[in-house]
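Lab notebook: predicted structure, single chain.

Context: the supervisor wants predicted structures on file for every construct in the current expression panel, including those that have not yet been purified. This is the next one on the list. No modifications to the sequence; it matches the entry in the shared construct table.
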Amino acid sequence: MTSASFSVPVDGLHHLSNETRMIATPWSRMVRGTGLGQYPIAYDPDAAARIRQSFALLGEKGVDDNTYSRFSRLLADFVLNIEDPARSPRRSDMEQDLGPILDSVRAEENPYFRLMAGCILMDAFAKLGLDKDLLVNAETDFPAEILAVADTIEADRIKDENAGRHGQYEKLSAYSAVFLAIGQLGLKERLVTGARNYIREALDLLEEIPSPFFRGRGGAVLLSVISLLGYGRFIFGEGRDYIKEVFDHLDRADELNSPPAFPQPMSESFPKIYPLLTMLNAIAMSGRPEEYLAYGRDRLAEAKELLGRITPVERTHMGLYYIIALHNLGRLDDQVPDLGALVEDTVGQWVHIDPGANYFLNGIAYPYVIQTAMLTGRMDLISGKTLERLVDGLPDLNRTDDDRINRPYPFAYTLNALAEIGSSHLLFEPRDAYGGATPIAWIIDQLSEGGRDEHRLYMLNHALVSYALRMRGAGSEETPLFKDFHFRHLRGEDDSTRD
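Prediction complete. Output recorded below exactly as produced.
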């Protein structure tokens, strides 16, 4: 396989949609379910069959007993039926199929997952161009239902390696998702009119997230969404400046001494660069780079220094964040005079990384380098050997119980990345590394019964739904919310014509 074999939906930074520029990295998509279905392509019956096969295999493993998985299967089937040119579903058909999907959302007991499912559904409606009257009518007001769910999300309920350190991080993330989904449906005024101003309430949650890492990373998403909606005045126009306040908190990271825990040991600089880069993107979204890039210190110099201090494998994660943030700020040319060298170094690290060594640091490094190559137009740096090492490395994630239980995490990233470059078939064909089974069948067969132990299995659902939602037609226009947004750079024209 050579780079010419890849079918990529974009071939450089100048082809990125506004949605991708805001939500370019797989973290928000796979972990949070926001921005699914990027890079629209033509309907592909083989891909549709793979998606349905995956859900069928999950069903055979008893995963359909999980309400979130059942919702994901029903939504993916709903989307594929609408996209299939051989079908012409009538409104009555859509109403009939929508009922079980709504029931599955409402049946989800975990409020965060209930909200996340509702947001994915609303976003899908917007991207498919469906009549929102199916969700807002005399009988139901689904957006209001989902917005109300945020009130039921309690602090410090996330069960992961950072349990007890999140504060209101989950509720803040929920607000980001539901604000975006409601904006996608053209109902953003609901957030700032009436008895409650939800934008102000969400911004006030920032102070209830003690960790600089989580306040910066989660806050950056919220601030970006608010800017996208056109409500920047609430960020910096009412006697407070929440962007500056987040930076003030980030600058106290050493003093507060509350670093996040990661599944594998990380360098001291990693938890500093991650929230900084996401905040740089929030600055780009705000349209006020001159106000913030020099606030407290030279933020671009800080980012460059931290990028040089993290390890090479960590740089495979952060390289894409760095490039996209600078691109959105219009500062890629002056900050990275030799973009080719940076991309070649970042992507070329795959040669030194064993993707089966662990599920997080190494396990998702390959999907990051693949997407970095795609978005910068450098798929010549990816070969068939790259993909084979990635796909055949997944069985090695049996070395520890933690790796085994969390294998759906890198597998979701892998499926998402391979689908984007037209190579998902590698996961659906027999391979020697899997004893002659297909990777998808082997991975699912390794799950505990019903997927009860694998608490990150929902990420595979996101990868499958995103794959389905992409098939709404090559060249499909962005939704009005994203299409009408404009990045305003610090000076001159942006560098979006540069690959």
